[in-house]
Amino acid sequence: MNEHNSAHTQEILPVKPVFDMELMLGLLQETRLGGQVMENLADAWERWLPHLHVMKLDTGKIRYLLVWLDEDVETEVDETWGKSATEGFRLNALAQTMCMCAVHQAEPEVEEAGCAPAPKPTEALRHALAAEGVPYQEDGPTLSRRYAVLTHFPFRGACDICFLQPDCPKANGSRDSSFHTVELGLPPLPDGETSDGGHAR
Q1: For the segment 103-131, what is each residue's pLDDT rounded down to a tens digit?
Q2: Which of 127, 166, 193, 195 is most buried, by the most CB atoms less than 10 A from its CB?
Q3: Is the pTM value of this prediction over 0.85?
Q4: Confidence (pLDDT) at 177
């Protein structure tokens, strides 16, 4: 465990996620993918593994799981999207899948609950995230990296403890199984526009 300052400590978790075909197909809303498509996705998965970070953050009172992919992955997705919306959409879903597979491996209860609840953005958490290079966008709770998940560690509950609960369809009775509390990697806007939060939408 490395201590960056007196406010928090961090520990890199030795997670190497295994590709979850079912999760990937669900994100793509597909039932199957062709052999060449799968080969391309498998190549991207292996290429991106060194860009995946899985970390336990301890702010003294509360511990968190932080998972994110480097900006290099965002750039590759955007460049691919510029050439082919279909291929870009697939890579976008692959990046989402990689993050969620890493979360599920580090914290299996999240997969069982179907939700990675977002924690309240405390000052201690803000400082810890900034020190690790994944700060909140402005006032939060959106992280600066497009493909990132932040949740409590160990598991403390699902929708009942989520900071986003008031705005979450799932927590408010929606049966939309495609909704995730932490939205990852939303597709780019037309003509390269970005949303107010800085994430491509």
Answers
A1: 999 988 787 766 777 788 889 999 999 99
A2: 127
A3: no
A4: 39
C-alpha dihedral sign at 103, 93, 127, 120: negative
Higher pLDDT, 109 or 200: 109
66, containing H or E segment: strand 63-69
- Is residue 160 within 8 A of residue 166, CB to CB? The reply is no
Nearest to 95 by CA among 31, 37, 152, 17: 17
Strand stretches in 2-62, DSSP E: 2-5, 8-12, 52-58
> Tokens 């597979």 label which residue?
101
- What strand order describes the sheet that includes 52-58? 2-5, 8-12, 52-58, 63-69, 148-152
Helix (H) or strand (E) holding 150: strand 148-152
136: helix, coil or strand? strand
Q: How large is the average pLDDT for residues 69-96?
A: 95
- Spell out the domains of the chain, with CATH numbers in brackets: 2-192 (3.40.109)
Closest CA to 88 of 142, 138, 44, 121: 44
Instruction: Tell me if 35 sits within 8 A of 85, measured CB to CB.
Output: no
Which residues lie below 8 Å from residue 130, measured CB to CB, with a gap of 6+?
136
